[in-house]
Amino acid sequence: MKAFIKIKESDNVAVAIRKIDQDQLLEIDGTTIKLKETVNKGHKFALKEIPQGENIVKYGFPIGHATQQIEPGEWVHTHNTKTNLSGVEEYEYKPKFQSEYTLKNTTTFKGFKRKDGRVGVRNELWIVPTVGCVNGIADQMIRVFQEKVGDITPFEHIQVLKHNYGCSQLGDDHVNTRTILGNAVNHPNAGGVLVLGLGCENNEINEFKESLGDFDSNRVKFLSSQDVMDEVEEGVKLLLEIFENAKDDRREDLPLSELKIGLKCGGSDGFSGITANPLLGQFSDYVVAQGGTTVLTEVPEMFGAEEILMERAKDEEVFQQIVELINDFKRYFERHDQPVYENPSPGNKAGGITTLEDKSLGCTQKAGTSQVVDVLKYGETLKTKGLNLLSAPGNDLVASSTLAAAGCQLVLFTTGRGTPLGTFVPTIKISTNTQIYETKPHWIDFNAGTLIDGQSQEELLEDFISYVIKIASGEKVNNEKNHFREIGIFKTGVTL
To answer: How far apart are CA 90 and CA 290, in angstroms?
Structure first.
């Protein structure tokens, strides 16, 4: 196996594919370089002399600048590199569209078509509490319901979307809770939903019902626990009504244009922008070419690479929406007296990511090369097919939940260090390296590290397309098998 990779011709650093010991001689671009210190897997080393103040270039773009003279073969990381980023910026629309993806064939999957025409990749029964006080009651209802119906059910899974919110919240925090929970109620992966309230919460059940807009009353039922004598008995009656209306649900062949897929990363390492994230970018282009929808979020992890997305805005209006998306999130940090660019986590840094630009240039590769057709604010749902951007923080559970609440039936989640997390839709973990795939097979679903091990990009993409179609057609992923299904809601305390 190769010891290192130089990603772009213009790069002045290379990335170690495995641990490379001090004093090892490396042949790069016809030049022999002697490593001045040991460089761990995923970390960078200089290919040439980099004077103090000169940019460190990776992926063909600056990821910061040298804070001191860096010699060829020297480890390049946080001790000698600093971000170039600072504050809110002004941008100019300079469109630069890449050639469109060449579609070789159209593809189908087996999903559930709902009464309103939307499509789910799961047929599940959910209890959605309007307030966290009734989480335990919801568990009781499910136990009694399952005793009554047994194993024969049209529902592939039954769960409570537990959370701790819905009471003593004001302003945006209250609106965010109501919006995200409402989007979950309307999600096409749910074949039926019981909305369960307590009766005294400020996320009041009648107002919540009105906020939902149109919904299928045969599949969505409501119960306020304080309004009845036996809330468990009444809740089970409503669940049985939903059960009767769902008995004939069946999967059918549907085009990939019906898929809405979230793009997410977490626990990133130095290989994220080399293996798994580019794989998702190629897959995103494939889905968009099929007429489907992909969604990139985690706005702080666009900082430093935002202009790459801006130049792909389909028109001036979308460009301005991206500018607003980026600068509004920067102002959010500033209002809370927080540093805008101190994003890479300790785990990211241990994995080889040095600056926010380093992380962002790898992160945004998940969006492929397609035009950006729309930008969504937090809590908004998808309305335009193609590549969308969505406002959410970098927090893994909040961002994953926001993607699901926007209407994504699946979330593709790349990771270099591993995470067991899953939200209330299937959350597919794609490893950036083979080691974490082999270490955590009960977390990781698909290995993109084979790209470093010698598999071609074309073969890897074909394997991944086949795998995602299997998941969309009903095969379970690890977060489902492990019952790691959670919901996170963004708590801002201010207006974004």
So the answer is: 35
352 to each of 76, 335, 416, 417, how far by Cα in Å? 9, 30, 10, 11
Is 232's pLDDT higher than 80?
yes
CB-based contacts of 294: which residues, under 8 Å, 6+ apart?
A: 260, 261, 262, 263, 284, 287, 288, 367, 368, 370, 386, 387, 388
Alpha helices, DSSP H, located in 366-493: 396-405, 434-439, 450-453, 457-472, 478-481
Q: Tokens 């047994």 correspond to what residue?
A: 150
pLDDT digits (tens, 9 = 90+) for 143-195: 999 999 988 789 999 999 999 999 988 888 999 999 999 999 999 999 999 99
Residue 26's SS3 state is strand
Question: Could you give the C-alpha distances from 134 to 55, 143, 300, in angstroms and in order?
Answer: 55, 15, 34
- The runs of H, that is alpha helices, within 340-395 are 346-350, 356-363
For residue 340, name the pLDDT band (cuts at 50, 70, 90). Answer: low
Q: Are strands 190-197 and 124-129 parallel, antiparallel or unpaired?
A: parallel
For residues 390 and 299, what is the distance between their CA atoms, to the nearest angstrom? Answer: 8
- Using left for φ > 0, alpha for ψ between -120 and 50, and beta otherwise, residue 166 falls in left
Contact in structure between 101 and 369 (CB atoms under 8 Å)? yes
Please return the burial class of 25, using the count of CB atoms within 10 Å of its CB with bins 0-12, 13-18 and 19+: exposed
Q: Are 185 and 193 in contact (CB under 8 A)?
A: yes
Owner of token pair 């209330």: 424
Q: Which of 344, 351, 154, 183 is nearest to 249 (CA)?
A: 154
* Rounded-to-10 torsion of CA 398, 365, 353, 332: -40
Residue pair 233/250 in contact (Cβ under 8 Å)? The answer is no
pLDDT at 1: 66
Q: What is the CA angle 315-316-318, rounded to 5?
A: 70
Name which of 413, 409, 381 is nearest 298 in CA terms. Answer: 413
Largest CA distance in the chain: 82
